[in-house]
């Protein structure tokens, strides 16, 4: 009992005392992120990273005849200063800015200052899409998602127009977020690796996107629902994963132990959510199934007409399958990793034309989640 009480006290201190201490520390060091010298003092590794980048760049230029895809072009750098460990501005001053100069890429820096700022910025200023050849994000997966959806909304939600414009407009990311699953799937775990990938890039490479449609109650009338659509290039999750992200990005955001505490909390709760998962899969060979450990969707229960939401095209119903269960978590993912340290679908490629669904029901034990 004494041990249990002591552990509870330690957890309470970890959750509440440390964030207050860090709030004071961050307030005292905010000005460090505004100039290159102070950034290097705070993150001395960035100086070593820049030296490595310069050395590697010489090797890359000797080996590649074609210039960098963005050389002599102009891009917009969008920096989320509070992403992850709040190092984005320091990374920009000490590493990204000099690297872009070396690559011959001119840029303009914009620092986000509020929630959803990146999305609104791109959506509301159409001139940015004409003025620049691309956007480079210093932030996490969420900031890049905002940029893509701002671009989509600037096209009026017109998918053909979005596809046409995106063929000549590039999107890039320097990972400074918490999870960085998308950049990790592109073999860029650090800002240095991302910049080296940029230096090696001679052609724009496509990435698959999928569309999410949701319904929400109107603010004017609860009887009315509004259909919302957005694009995603990475991962959409519900259940325990969503709870985990809420804890790490909101409740425990300033806690240095958040990535340890959050999994323990959600696994201990192991809350289940009733739901139905509808799938309209594509055929694959037995060899593909063996390599990827995918489940044969054709063996799932076929949907009845009444099962399927009216928004799904009627002509597609014969191919739909359904899983009706209580789910601990469910994720739809386009890439190999959900986070820099979380492999979800090792065989997945961001441009393989497929999205993958992972679902855990109540039969999974805690050891399986760990």
From TrEMBL:
GO terms for cellular component: cytoplasm; membrane. Keywords: Kinase, Transferase. One of its GO terms (biological process) is sphingosine biosynthetic process. Residues 70-216 form the DAGKc domain. The keyword Glycosyltransferase does not apply. SUPFAM superfamilies: NAD kinase/diacylglycerol kinase-like (SSF111331). Signal peptide: none annotated. The keyword ATP-binding does not apply. GO terms for molecular function: lipid kinase activity; phosphotransferase activity, alcohol group as acceptor. This is Sphingosine kinase 1. It comes from Physocladia obscura. The lineage of its organism: Eukaryota, Fungi, Fungi incertae sedis, Chytridiomycota, Chytridiomycota incertae sedis.
């Amino acid at each position: 009992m004494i041990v249990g009480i002591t552990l509870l006290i330690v957890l309470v201190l970890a959750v509440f005392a440390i964030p207050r201490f860090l709030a004071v520390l961050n307030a005292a060091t905010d000005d460090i992120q505004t100039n290159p010298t102070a950034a290097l003092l705070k993150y001395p590794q960035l100086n070593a990273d820049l030296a490595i980048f310069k050395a590697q760049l010489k090797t890359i230029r000797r080996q590649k005849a074609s210039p960098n895809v963005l050389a002599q072009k102009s891009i917009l750098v969008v920096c989320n200063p509070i992403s992850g460990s709040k190092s984005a501005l320091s990374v920009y001053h000490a590493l990204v800015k000099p690297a872009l100069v070396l690559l011959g890429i001119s840029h303009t820096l914009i620092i986000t200052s509020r929630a959803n700022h990146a999305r609104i910025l791109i959506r509301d200023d159409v001139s940015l899409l004409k003025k620049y050849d691309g956007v480079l994000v210093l932030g996490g997966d969420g900031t890049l998602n905002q940029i893509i959806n701002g671009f989509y909304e600037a096209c009026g939600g017109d998918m053909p127009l979005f596809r046409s414009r995106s063929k000549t407009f590039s999107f890039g990311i320097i990972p400074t977020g918490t999870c960085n699953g998308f950049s990790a799937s592109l073999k860029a775990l650090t800002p240095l690796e991302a910049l080296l990938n940029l230096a090696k890039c001679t052609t724009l490479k496509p990435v698959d996107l999928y569309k999410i449609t949701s319904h929400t109650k109107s603010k004017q009338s609860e009887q009315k629902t509004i259909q919302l659509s957005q694009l995603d290039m990475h991962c959409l999750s519900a259940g325990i994963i969503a709870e985990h992200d809420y804890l790490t990005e909101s409740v425990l955001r300033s806690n240095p132990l958040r990535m340890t505490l959050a999994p323990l909390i959600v696994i201990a709760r192991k809350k289940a959510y009733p739901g139905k998962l509808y799938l309209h899969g594509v055929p694959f060979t037995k060899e593909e199934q063996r390599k990827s450990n995918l489940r044969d969707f054709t063996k799932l229960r076929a949907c009845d007409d009444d099962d399927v939401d009216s928004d799904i095209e009627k002509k597609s119903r014969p191919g739909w399958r359904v899983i009706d269960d209580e789910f601990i978590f469910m994720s739809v993912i386009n890439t190999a990793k959900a986070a820099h340290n979380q492999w979800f679908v090792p065989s997945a490629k961001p441009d393989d034309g497929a999205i993958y669904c992972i679902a855990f029901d109540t039969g999974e034990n805690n050891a399986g989640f760990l």
